[in-house]
Amino acid sequence: MDGSHWWAVATDQLKRGIEAKVQFAITTHRKGQRGFSVLEMLLATVILLVGLVAVAQLAPVSMLLNYRNRTDSAALVFAQRELDQILDQPLTRSSFVDALGNTCQLGNAASLNVIQGSNVVVVNNQPLIVFGAPNPPLAPTNGYGFTYQDSTDQTETTYDVRWAVIISGNAGVVSSKRFILGVQQLGGNGYFQPVTLDTVVGR
């Protein structure tokens, strides 16, 4: 065997050895890499679906809370506006006509230190108007409540407005009046907590 032939054989063996080692390294590396199994994919899908369902359930709850907050705010604003008109009246006046055209009774000076008008219940030292009974008749039969429909509201929300008066004084002379006014939404979905305002006006 001459030198050139020996050199060609040696070179060929060396080349094959290097290729074998490279192929072994690639095969070993691929065996170390492991893909996702079907079970793992199913588990990940279930977890994702549970998360999506939980988020989807929050949307209607958020919308309902937003609607109720808006309704409560509207009821509070109307209650404050009506109470301001009542408080603007002189203590000697027994009734007046509000901005909506309702005749509103302000109590009889002959009946001192008693609740006049709508029924009141005390809960946790807080007086609340009772809305369980039917709406009180309008003046002159009663005149301590009325229903109001907000024409500016697209849903045409209707509110039940009621109040009671406690007059303090002596010998027919009125010294102060305590007004307890409540407003509750009528109709709609669910129960809406009434808004109650309690204040005293005196000489």
Describe this structure in words.
The protein has 203 residues and is α+β, with helices and mostly antiparallel strands. The chain has one domain. The protein has 2 helices and 9 strands; from the N terminus they run ααβββββββββ. It has helices spanning 3-32, 38-87, and strands at residues 95-97, 103-105, 115-117, 120-123, 126-129, 145-149, 158-170, 173-186, 195-202. The strands form 3 sheets. Strands 3, 6, 7, 8 and 9 form a 5-stranded antiparallel sheet that branches. Strands 1-2 form a two-stranded antiparallel sheet. The longest helix is centred in the N-terminal third of the chain and has 50 residues, at 38-87. The relative contact order is 0.13. The mean pLDDT is 78.
| Helix fraction by DSSP (H/I, runs of at least 4) | 25-40%
* Biggest sheet statistics: 5 strands, antiparallel
Q: How many domain regions?
A: 1
Gyration radius (Cα, Å) is 41 Å
Mean pLDDT: 78
Give me the count of strands: 9
The DSSP helix count reads 2
Element-by-element helix/strand order: HHEEEEEEEEE
Backbone shape: rod-shaped
What portion of residues belong to β-strands? 25-35%
Poorly predicted runs of 5 or more residues: none
Protein structure class: alpha+beta
**Span between termini:** 134 Å
Tags for this model:
alpha+beta, two-stranded antiparallel ribbon, 5-stranded antiparallel sheet, 203 residues, rod-shaped, 2 helices
